[in-house]
Design brief:
- The protein has about 110 residues and is mainly beta.
- It is built from one helix and six strands.
- The chain has a five-stranded mixed beta barrel.
- It is globular and about 45 Å long.
- The termini are far apart.
């Protein structure tokens, strides 16, 4: 692939979230009460723009995720991660973000 066909690629680490019914979002734990970090990357067709930690994104499977870490990724390594669908303009509140960052510190 020529250099002109390449695009910037970033890796995003996130935690699944769900609507809390009051216009906000809360972390989504599985049936065992566990929550795990997952990673995605920007793809050629990713919609929207990353603005800050705590922003929400949608995966290609429709899962809503809170971004807790962003880092650049080499274009040649892009196939090691699944591309994300779109960035949303919504952000989580500071308490939910703090919980997410604490989970990131524990699991990293």
């Amino acid at each position: 692939m020529s250099k002109k066909d390449q695009y910037p690629v970033s890796r995003y680490t996130g935690l699944p979230v769900e609507d809390d019914g009051n216009g906000g979002y809360r972390l989504h734990y599985d049936a065992n009460g566990q929550i795990r970090l997952h990673t995605w990357r920007t793809g050629k067709h990713t919609k929207g723009r990353f603005r800050r930690i705590g922003q929400l994104m949608l995966t290609e499977n429709g899962l809503m995720v809170m971004i807790v870490k962003s880092e650049p990724m080499a274009f040649k390594d892009r196939h090691s991660e699944v591309p994300l669908g779109r960035f949303l303009s919504a952000n989580v509140d500071s308490a939910t973000l703090a919980k997410g960052l604490a989970i990131l510190d524990q699991q990293s």
